[in-house]
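It is worth pausing here to work through a concrete case rather than discussing structure prediction in the abstract. The textbook approach is simple: state the sequence, then state the predicted structure, then interpret. We follow exactly that order.
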Amino acid sequence: MNLRDFVRDIPDYPKEGIVFFDITPILSDPHAFRHTVDCLAERFKDCGATKIVAAEARGFIFGAPLAYAMGIGFVPVRKPGKLPYKSRCVTYDLEYGTDTLCMHEDAIAPGEKVLVIDDLLATGGTAEGMLKLVREAGGDIVGCGFVIQLGFLDGPRKMKDSGQEHCFLLELD
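Step two, the predicted structure:
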């Protein structure tokens, strides 16, 4: 299945000069959605992870069913003020600004094996933020998975420079 057939390009969103790659067509097609989760599950089946960390909102869409498929826990990473318990937070750069992500301070045990999942790797800011949160908690990152990688931005280089193995299902140049 060619996932590119299920990604819609939206120019000038969220601001002029940015092309937003819309994954909602993947989600609305049951075969494409199942294929996407199954491909990620197959890729990471032997990584030894006991938890998946994913950022809201689109990371949740793939991270939660992947955790279910793999039989492991799911850790939601959210915007400030959205988690009810004590949290650790990190601020990071985006392609078009900055953002902050938070994770419950007890979500990852020291030494726990963690898989980081998101829908898209662009400049790498969100991924770096999640990696930092996991490392601060003492987690051992065993891999990073993305549905889409934007090869024309710095994210792939940043992931390579971080020393983290990562995979993607679709690369857009």
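Step three, interpretation. The helical segments are 24-28, 30-44, 58-70, 125-136, 155-162. The chain has a mean pLDDT of 93.
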